[in-house]
Amino acid sequence: MQSKQVGIYFYVFQFISVRREIIVSVYLSLGSNIGNRFKNIQTAIKLLKEIGFNVIKSSSIYETSPRGVTDQPDFLNLVLKGKTKLCPEELLKDIKRIEKEIGRKPTKKWGARIIDIDILFYDKKIIKTKKLKIPHPHLHRRNFVLIPLKEIAPRLMHPLIKKTVSQMLNDSSDKGAVVVYNEYKDNG
Known about the structure:
Elements lengths: L1 H19 L3 E9 L4 H14 L3 E5 L3 E3 L10 E10 L3 H15 L13 E7 L4 E2 L4 E2 L8 H10 L12 H7 L6 E3 L2 H4 L2
Antiparallel strand pairs: 1-4, 1-5, 2-4, 3-4, 3-8, 6-7
Helix pairs in contact: 2-3, 4-5
């Protein structure tokens, strides 16, 4: 009887260990419109890799006009698909730390920022807490997210809206400029 109990505990321990090792697909949006925008995004990608975000695909970088508060410089934006073992809350905590490390400071809503990293999708999960909303609640209205996302995942289905990225882009009323960025334009 004693060996059976030990076997059960071992099995439970093994199950918990395996459960924590689940690797999920995550889509992130990165943007910057202060300082060296290109370098800020490169630094963010490097730091994301250091926390265990394994980049699988990256969109092109797009230069986009600001939304909301329009009296500010244009943004550079891109979307990453990656894999991670981090749970959504841990990922958000690490993202906020990365933003702060790069130099992000609190600002007005939709204001200029040195770096902005948003979780667009975390696997097929739907999460709605005070601090975290996944899928990102505004992604379907923002061409600066939808255009790079379509580049890497056109058939990705939004679990709430029940439309693909391509369909959401076709339905979007966002008229802001979104053009492929030429890094040489800024860097000589």
